[in-house]
Write a structure and sequence with these properties.
single chain; alpha/beta; 314 residues
């Protein structure tokens, strides 16, 4: 580091000049700095001996800083504040590093809700829900935030919100469908690259439906647009279509003996691990943000595996 141009001033010297720039006389400066008047005069004389330009001048009976020194005062104030901040930071206990994983479908906003706790530092990573769960299970992440419709081994799901899936169509199209033969309906197919698509396609496979789809999409919004345009039927999250159902633009289509799965947003931790205290505040903020019809109360826990996502009603 090149320090040839650095002035030979200590922190008290800088504070002395800053106080004088604020209009204080030497007696007031001495009181402010907790020094005697003679100590302040001695320091000022030492500063004047080190500076290459005049430091003070007389204005009537008052001793004031010269214009050259006054020009540098804003920088000295900034340096003094930086040093105070550095001292405060160094005096704090070392912060704990928390590793958090967030499913990509929830990223972009969930990380902004992490609590502002002075002793905590964050590392945030993203991935699909299965990847986040795997990292939590292996211990490389302290906590994960995922959306899923099935269970996992070796971890615990602390449920924040539940969002059931529902088959929907426009009322007009619904009136033309053969209720007893849902495999013949004009289903909008989802691509397997979409986690939602994998779930729905597995259900169709489980039911043995081999229907032909006119459309295949890789976004929930695309499927919703096609349904609203009466181009087909789709299985969608209730949260995405609830306003259309309430406005009677869409109708829910019950299928005999079929119960669609429920998508769950949950904080995930390794089995047996104590849930960190900060997750409660984070979870409550996430649940409020999701704001589905009936958010599951934070803290409900689901452990181990969950049965097949498609179940037959009894």
């Amino acid at each position: 580091m090149d320090n040839l141009d650095i002035m030979g001033l200590d922190l008290t010297d800088i504070a002395l000049l800053v106080e004088m720039a604020d209009g204080k006389n030497l007696g007031q400066v001495a009181e402010r700095l907790g020094l005697s008047a003679s100590a302040v005069s001695h320091r000022l004389g030492r500063i004047e001996g080190r500076m290459p330009v005049p430091v003070t001048s007389r204005l009537g009976r008052e001793l004031v800083l010269t214009d050259q020194i006054a020009a540098g005062i804003p920088f000295l104030k900034s340096a003094l504040q930086d040093l105070r901040d550095a001292t405060a930071m160094m005096s704090k206990p070392p912060g704990r590093l928390c590793s958090v994983g967030i499913a990509r479908i929830l990223a972009g906003w969930a990380e902004t809700l992490l609590p502002e706790v002075g002793t905590l530092r964050w590392t945030v990573s993203t991935g699909n829900s299965e990847q986040i769960v795997d990292r939590v299970r292996k211990g490389s992440l302290d906590v994960g935030l995922v959306r899923t419709d099935h269970g996992f081994w070796g971890v615990e799901l602390h449920i924040l919100d539940e969002d059931p899936l529902v088959a929907v169509a426009t009322p007009h199209l619904a009136g033309t469908l053969a209720i007893e033969a849902p495999e013949t309906w004009p289903w909008v197919r989802f691509s397997d690259v979409l986690s939602h698509g994998k779930t729905v396609n597995q259900i169709f496979l489980h039911l043995g439906w081999r229907q032909m789809q006119t459309f295949e999409v890789d976004a929930l919004e695309s499927a919703l647009a096609l349904v609203l345009a009466e181009r087909g039927v789709a299985v969608l999250p209730e949260s995405l279509v609830v306003h259309h159902l309430d406005a009677l633009r869409l109708a829910a289509l019950p299928i005999p003996d079929v119960k669609w799965p429920t998508r769950t947003v949950a904080i995930v931790t390794r089995t047996g691990r104590v849930l960190p205290q900060w997750t409660e505040a984070w979870g409550e903020k996430i649940a409020r943000r999701l704001n589905h019809r009936q958010p599951t109360r934070y803290g409900e826990r689901l452990t181990g595996d969950i049965p097949c996502p498609i179940t037959r009603q009894k």
